[in-house]
Design brief:
Number of strands: 13
Structural class: alpha/beta
Strand order of the largest sheet: 2-1-3-4-5-6
Helix content: 25-40%
Shape: globular
InterPro entries: YkvP/CgeB_Glyco_trans-like (IPR055259)
Oligomer: single chain
Protein name: Spore protein YkvP/CgeB glycosyl transferase-like domain-containing protein
Pfam families: Glyco_trans_1_2 (PF13524)
Distance between the termini: 19 Å
Largest sheet: 6 strands, parallel
Length: 367
């Protein structure tokens, strides 16, 4: 599988496209919104750097701006009207819907009737093992031209049926967003980073359900006292976002990437990109399937708690080796999944313009 650093490409569409991107970006009217590392913002960056005219439409903010007391739910009707009016005015080639839960299939159908020549694409990075997410994604898939989801494997087709095009969406990195280089630090401020929005919600790790406070306490007990943890939202530490969140990523040597489940092929929260994009050595369950794309010299894969503890101890005691593996993972992830490459892949897959050799990782996703 050839790796290419991708900033601009001869494989993109033959002419620049006008794209209205509906989603969440780097600004939000919601206080303390974790928008600094927004996937929507990174995808827009990639599309623009690939030469397209991209117009960001922050749908939640449009709804909040017209709802009573800033309520986006109370501003839904205004959102629908504003989006329809703007699309009629701008006449884009592509309507790209990111996490468009507030825009139901019925409204998408109305928009398609209004703009019959426009291609409609949805992308989503929410977990399909959450029933509401799966239901919403499947419903919108029936009224768009293409869907992209951060889960791979047969389960996606089982959910949405045989109709339409669907592709795997890697969590993108962007060097203008993920700016840290933790592997280059001689003296990182901490050794292991872990962030969790709700530690009491159980996560299945190596076949056992864990409260994450308990899990992290277990790691602390089994690892040498010299291992320093950087926590957010767990073990009594506050959950952080924005400017307070970035230093935890940039100044910590290693990161623990644990989603609620590991048995959905190639699924990970976007925190994976945030950690590896900032140069951390990432620990991840082998069951996720990422070991089909990355080697043990690029990420730290584990299949049991004992193996995780052993690997953490080994890398902690061998910082130069840890730096080499972290740097290799960072380089490969950027080669495959930088914002320009992922944006090019979405457009090329949708329009059917990708040569066979482009983005060779896509042959592993089994969709």
């Amino acid at each position: 599988m050839a790796d290419r650093i991708w900033y601009g490409s001869e494989w993109q569409a033959s002419r620049p496209l006008k794209i209205v991107h509906v989603g969440d970006f780097f600004f939000s009217l919601k206080k303390k919104a974790p928008c600094q590392f927004s996937v929507g913002g990174k995808l827009s960056n990639g599309l623009i750097r690939n030469g397209h005219h991209v117009i960001d439409f922050s749908y939640r903010d449009v709804a909040r701006s017209s709802g009573w007391f800033g309520s986006r739910r109370m501003g839904r009707r205004h959102l629908f009207r504003a989006l329809k009016e703007f699309l009629a005015f701008s006449a884009p080639d592509i309507l790209l819907l990111g996490h468009g839960y507030m825009i139901p299939p019925s409204v998408i159908e109305e928009i398609r009737q209004q703009q019959p020549g426009m291609t409609v694409v949805q992308w989503n990075i929410d977990a399909l093992f959450v029933e509401a997410n799966a239901k919403d994604f499947a419903a919108r898939h029936q009224v768009v031209d293409a869907s992209f989801i951060s889960t791979a494997g047969p389960i996606v087709r089982q959910l949405i049926g045989d109709k339409g095009h669907v592709g795997y969406l890697p969590n993108p990195v962007d060097r203008s967003v993920e700016r840290g280089r933790a592997f280059a630090l001689a003296y990182p401020e901490a050794d292991i980073f872990y962030s969790c929005g709700n530690p009491a919600r159980l996560r299945t790790i190596c076949g056992r359900d864990w409260d994450m406070n308990e899990f992290c306490e277990t790691l602390e007990e089994r690892l040498p006292p010299s291992v320093r943890f950087a926590y957010a939202g767990v073990r009594g530490q506050p959950y952080v976002s924005g400017a307070a969140y970035a230093p935890l990523l940039e100044q910590t040597a290693m990161g623990l990437n644990i989603s609620r489940r590991a048995d959905y092929y190639l699924y990970s929260s976007d925190r994976l990109a945030q950690m590896i994009g900032n140069g951390q050595l990432v620990f991840m369950e082998r069951q996720t399937g990422f070991d089909r794309i990355f080697s043990d010299q690029e990420m730290a894969f584990f299949s049991s708690l004992d193996e995780l503890v052993e690997l953490m101890g080994q890398y902690h005691s061998a910082p130069e080796y840890r730096k080499d593996v972290a740097r290799a993972g960072w380089q490969r992830y950027y080669a495959l999944f930088n914002e320009c490459a992922v944006a090019d892949y979405i457009i090329g897959q949708t329009l059917g313009t990708l040569p066979e050799e482009a983005h060779a990782w896509r042959y592993l996703v089994n969709l």
